Amino acid sequence: MSETTEDRINFDYDGGTFRFAGVVLVNLILQILTLGIFRFWARTRERRFLWSHVSLGEDRLEYTGGGLELFLGFIIAMIALIPVVGIYQILLLAVRSSIPGQIIVNLLYMTVLMFLVHLAVYRARRYRLTRTLWRGIRGTLTGSPVRYALVALAWLPVLVLSLGLAAPFMRIALLNRELNNMHLGDRPFGFDGHARDLFAYWIVPWVTLLAVIAGYAWIMYISFEVMDAAGIDPYNPEGAEPNPETMDTERVNSASDRMPAAFALLGFGGLAYMISVAWYRVREFRYLASRVSFEGMSFSSEIGLGRVAWIYVSYIFTAVIVGMALVVGMMLLALVLNGVPLDPDMVGTGMGDILGELDRNVQGLVVFGLVMIVAILLQTLSRVMVFHRLARTVVSTLALTGAQDFSKVTQALDSSPRLGEGLADAFDLGDF
């Protein structure tokens, strides 16, 4: 172990983009060939790649989880969910003639699901920490997953009644439960974040979301006003056409003139919302990192909105170009399959006729294969250009400052979970 030093030590990520793309590409192909079963081993392969390229000082992280653990955990979780779904269906049948009864049953079912989701989140993070090693010492997450889920359930009504304004308070309450129970070996992390510090930032995306909702509501109001003025009854199939005898042309024109402004509000509000959410997430991460400590050392992050925005903008631009090229390619192939020669020299050679004479089943297989290839390419592009670059940005802007003495950190004696993320996989929450 290193001796005590007073310094700043940076995290680093040196994973190659093309090597990660190769891992993702192979994973996607194998998932398709195994009808999705390989997803658990695919997730393990990606984690091992990413973890092994993250370093703090001269020491790298190591991921020791296995695909079989994740698979068995998923199977057990699915078996455990069968009684929940079964009871829900039985209760629905019992109250099928009562609207209030159906509402109550659905609310109870959603409450149980939300409890299980947060329970799964906590257990999944515990599993990932126990499978993460640094200097041969694994992480741990103590505390009760049940209490974590109950805290989340207690905050959900507050979140709904506050129209989302309470989101930072719920976030901090859950992080207090999680980060203050996190350990490296036998040494705990600390977290002293306060929701009031995030609330001022959260107001910005919250207001822009109101603009989006207002724009959408305005468009719907104008649409119903136009239908009413035109004598259209949207709930009556026979009255779905304008009625010239009852149409109020002046009112229709007046309402239609307001439609561009409503779409402008929706469009600019949507753009402002996306930008403000990205800005908030960056500010939130920097703040949360600064409130985490370990053995007298403090974390800090220098991540900026510009770098994050460039990741998404460049991905969208590339995805549009690639998508257009793939669409054009598929259109040309469709012409060939229907016997249309693309090259004048092919006229009279019979090549176009031969392709056009292909059995429809063969053509269907060709189209299906092309669709799968397109899906694989776009998914690979997303994982490489967004997720991988975000991981690099987040890690490389993170640092640990203070008197660094890791010699006191020893392996914890707590037992680690033997199976994988279980419910998190069942709810599709077990990514990273």
Q: How would you characterize the overall build of this protein?
A:
This protein is an alpha+beta fold. Among the domains are: 196-290; 303-396, no CATH class. The chain is 64% helix and 11% strand. The protein has twelve helices and ten strands. It has helices spanning 17-33, 39-52, 67-94, 99-130, 145-161, 167-179, 195-229, 249-290, 305-337, 351-356, 360-396, 423-426, and strands at residues 5-13, 54-56, 59-63, 132-134, 137-141, 182-184, 187-191, 292-294, 297-301, 398-404. Helix 6 packs across helix 7. It is globular. The two termini are 29 Å apart. Mean pLDDT is 83; it is low at 346-357.
Structural class: alpha+beta
**Sequence of secondary-structure elements:** EHHEEHHEEHHEEHHEEHHHEH
What about the largest sheet?
10 strands, antiparallel, barrel
Summarize model confidence as the mean pLDDT.
Answer: 83
Q: Per DSSP, what share of the residues sits in E-state strands of 2 or more residues? A: 5-15%
- Give start-end ranges of low-pLDDT stretches: 346-357
Question: Treating each run of at least 4 consecutive H or I residues as one helix, how many helices?
Answer: 12
Helix content: 55-70%
